[in-house]
Amino acid sequence: MGRSSDNSQISYEEKLEKKVTIEETKEQGIVVTNGETADVARWDSTWNYTHIAVSTGVLANAINAALYTGIGATISPLVPIPGWAIHGMLQAASWTKLGSKPGEAVAKQWDTNKNGWVGFYFQNGYDARENVVATRYSTR
Known about the structure:
The structure is a single chain. This protein is of the alpha+beta class. 29% of the residues lie in helices and 34% in strands. It is built from four helices and seven strands. The protein has helices at 56-69, 71-78, 83-92, 103-110, and strands spanning 8-13, 19-25, 29-35, 42-43, 48-55, 117-126, 132-139. Strands 1, 2, 3, 4, 5, 6 and 7 form a seven-stranded antiparallel beta sheet that branches. Helix 1 runs antiparallel to helix 2 (71-78) and helix 1 (56-69) crosses helix 4 (103-110).
């Protein structure tokens, strides 16, 4: 997926010293990438389903609880994908600016096909030697 001028992007460094990039694209919505994308020669040809889907109601409640108790304690057990990916997706959704109960707004945003469920997807990025050098996550 190439970057176009209508994509916005934010970068920050994680404690693990890996580059995490947050993009909002027309095609995939919010995409959170960990790794050096400059080293990526190719991405997986399709988005891979993680086999993790959470109803918007359950996810909304977990996000609301995370605002007060922390992401790791509430969302990580519910959605077992890397913490950097969840943190990046929440940051992109501006979840701390959505009032005292942001869960419903974020869950609706992440449920891009409006079926009442949020599915989590990933792609690996490979260097010229076919080593995984980056991974990115998105929701649907």
